[in-house]
């Protein structure tokens, strides 16, 4: 029995290390892509938030703890690379990752349509964060202009990027599951 337990722990430890290293590299790649490439070439005047899409995807596929850890790591990494100073992104990504991972594991089915529903909810959270930053920065705000020129393009572009990001992350997760 002890041999089985130690072998199981070694397999679990090896799998955990494989997942951690692989997804850490993916997070680093996506954060550099978001800050450098998408920050330079803004689509419709906004930068889509790839990190919240990645956090949602990992939380949806791997569970609440992976989502929470990915969320806080992705938030701090975006702050470090983007040099934005103090922000609420690590906390927001942590909460979104944990909540989506919790509901996705309770639901059990890993369907693409379910992911799109969680992604839509995540976009509303991201829009609330953006609106909060705008309200903290400016004294007088025109909500219609903000919605049409900032929030709506950001929601649409981030949603589209999140829908496209699902397939590579799902494939990567399936490859990691297959490799034992």
Helix segment count?
Answer: 6
Give the number of DSSP strands. Answer: 0
How is the biggest beta sheet arranged? none
The whole-number mean of residue pLDDT values reads 79
Low-confidence stretches: 1-10
Distance between the termini: 21 Å
Overall 3D form: globular
Structural class: mainly alpha
Radius of gyration: 18 Å
SSE series? HHHHHH
How much helicity do the residues have?
over 70%
Report the portion of residues in β strands: under 5%
Q: Can you tell me about this structure?
A:
Helices cover 84% and strands 0% of the residues. With 180 residues, the protein is an all-alpha fold. Helix 1 runs parallel beside helix 3, helix 2 packs parallel to helix 4 (89-107) and helix 2 (50-62) runs antiparallel to helix 5 (112-137). The longest helix has 39 residues, at 2-40.
Put the structure in a nutshell:
With 180 residues, the chain is an all-alpha fold. It has six helices and no strands.
Notable characteristics:
180 residues, disordered N terminus, single chain, 84% helix, globular, mainly alpha
Topology readout:
Elements: H1 2-40, H2 50-62, H3 64-82, H4 89-107, H5 112-137, H6 143-178
């Amino acid at each position: 029995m002890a041999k089985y337990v130690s072998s199981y722990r070694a397999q679990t430890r090896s799998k955990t290390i494989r997942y951690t290293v692989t997804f850490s590299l993916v997070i680093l790649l996506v954060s550099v892509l978001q800050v450098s490439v998408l920050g330079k070439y803004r689509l419709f005047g906004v930068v889509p938030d790839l990190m919240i899409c990645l956090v949602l995807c990992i939380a949806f596929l791997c569970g609440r703890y992976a989502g929470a850890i990915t969320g806080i790591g992705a938030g701090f990494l975006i702050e470090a690379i983007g040099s934005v100073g103090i922000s609420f992104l690590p906390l927001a990504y942590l909460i979104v990752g944990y909540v989506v991972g919790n509901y996705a594991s309770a639901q059990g089915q890993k369907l693409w349509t379910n992911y799109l529903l969680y992604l839509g909810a995540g976009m509303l959270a991201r829009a609330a964060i953006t609106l909060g930053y705008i309200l903290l920065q400016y004294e007088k705000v025109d909500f219609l202009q903000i919605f049409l020129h900032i929030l709506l393009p950001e929601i649409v572009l981030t949603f589209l990027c999140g829908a496209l990001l699902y397939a590579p992350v799902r494939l990567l997760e399936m490859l990691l599951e297959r490799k034992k």
